[in-house]
Fold this sequence. Notes:
Elements: E1 12-15, H1 23-52, H2 60-94, E2 98-103, E3 106-112, E4 121-128, E5 134-139, E6 145-152, E7 155-162, H3 172-177, E8 179-180, E9 199-200, H4 202-215, E10 222-226, E11 232-236, E12 239-242, E13 245-248, E14 254-264, E15 267-269, E16 275-277, E17 282-293, E18 296-303, H5 322-335, E19 338-339, E20 348-350, H6 356-365
Parallel strand pairs: 5-8, 7-9, 14-19, 18-20
Antiparallel strand pairs: 1-2, 2-3, 3-4, 5-6, 6-7, 10-11, 11-12, 12-13, 14-17, 15-16, 17-18
Amino acid sequence: MAHGNGTGTAERFIALASAREPTHSKTELYSCLALLFGAIATLTAVVTYLAMAPGPPVAPSNLIGARSLLGSLGLVTSVLTFFSAKLFVRRLAKRPLRRLRVDAAGIAFEAAGRHRDQRRMVQERLIDFSGFFGMTLLSDPIRHRLVLAVTATGRAVYFSARVNPDERHAYRGLLSSASTVSDDDAVLDALGPDGAPLELKVGDMSALIDTLLQTDGMALDRCFLSDTHGAPVVLDNHELQIGRKDFDLRAPLEWRAMLFQEPFGTVMTVSDREQAAKPPGGVMVYQATWVRQGLSEAVLVSLIPSISSVSVPPSPAAGEVPEVASAVLRDLRLMQASPEPPPPAELRVAIERMFMLRLRAALDRAPRASHKDIPSAALP
């Protein structure tokens, strides 16, 4: 595993989306601004009328009334201006400054402190350039939302972006490199350390990827995962490590996608020595990827949260960018899985479901094994 020859990274900042303001706060501000503009418009209309109205000079009684009206309107305008400015300043104070700080050491999340510490920036390191890391692009089926997953040993950081229709062609490279996830997957709503969206503009995400590639040119070919017991699942260019088993993606191997289900239920005590399972209360559906090379065999497994997640996503829309349409069709093919009996428990390695297609795509690029490539001891 070789680290890329990264050069020095100039310090820069990337703005992040802030948490949405409460609805009542926005309503108060908009109402106050509407009244303010209404008062200014009325004051302007009265002054203009008095200055340009034809006819004889204004009578003293009317002049006194006009001055009273102008004074009242001026007072109302001043009061509304004061409260509008106060609401605006308060709203700005409630919106914390959120940004990413990129420098030679890595990428850190920065946000203004809460309450009395708003002037002090709170910083948390997200990515450390001194260690190895990998990048995986994820997207919803119609490629309107993009997520950059940066994985390292023991940690994963997610950055999200929304892609407007007029940006699809310019960023077709990012969209075509993304692996499809369900459109209701929680990973699409990436959150920062403060619990607010960790959302970038798609241009900023592209710049962030370029910065990471300058540090490690192989990051897009690497992915760090682990199973529920902490065993490593690491994709590093042409090598795939699943627990203690290694697979060479340049050599012939076998793999296939599958679905299986298992009932779940509770165990009921019948006597002091015997137990009986209650009738299952339902089933759990899993997606899996079986892989075998030589004497090494493993099954990557992830739970499917709902039956809707099994449904095939829509085909590319007419007029879609060719590179993006090709990527969607690729993922549609990789999603095809046939129902099979549950695999042996000792072969299963659980991973997060959003990375299943990522690893299948890597296996799909490897040469397929024929029976003559497989030792007889490994044949079923």
